[in-house]
């Protein structure tokens, strides 16, 4: 157990770590949007295959619409940030 006289903080990052985290934090929404887009795109492609084969249930159709909504939202986020390159979409 550390004594109360220890100069290092018991919890948290040192100031240099906090500065680095602050620099990285601004990119988290873009990373999340890119990940959301890629995951939804994969799911939409799977469901589109079911639709093409005529085996798309009503629940699958709802899932396809939800995936497309997620893709559109993520696309908007990335487009506003000028980072469509993260999902390889050319404007």
Tell me about this structure:
The protein has 91 residues and is mainly alpha-helical. Helix content is 66%, strand content 0%. Helix 2 (28-53) packs antiparallel against helix 3 (58-80). Mean pLDDT is 86; it is low at 1-10.
**What is the average per-residue confidence, as pLDDT, rounded to a whole number?**
86
How many angstroms separate the termini? 57 Å
In the predicted model, the low-confidence regions spanning at least 5 consecutive residues are: 1-10
How large is the share of residues in beta strands?
under 5%
Count of helix runs: 3
Helix content: 55-70%
Main β-sheet description: none
SSE arrangement, N to C: HHH
Question: What brief labels describe this structure?
Answer:
91 residues, 0% strand, elongated
What is shown here, in short?
Helices cover 66% and strands 0% of the residues. By secondary structure, it is mainly α.
Topology:
Elements: H1 15-25, H2 28-53, H3 58-80
Helix pairs in contact: 2-3
């Amino acid at each position: 157990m550390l004594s109360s006289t220890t100069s290092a903080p018991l919890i948290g990052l040192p100031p240099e770590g906090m500065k680095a985290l602050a620099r990285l934090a601004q990119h988290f929404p873009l990373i999340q949007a890119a990940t959301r887009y890629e995951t939804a795109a994969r799911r939409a492609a799977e469901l589109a295959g079911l639709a093409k084969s005529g085996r798309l249930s009503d629940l699958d159709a709802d899932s396809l619409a939800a995936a497309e909504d997620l893709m559109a939202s993520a696309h908007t986020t990335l487009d506003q940030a000028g980072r469509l390159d993260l999902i390889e979409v050319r404007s």
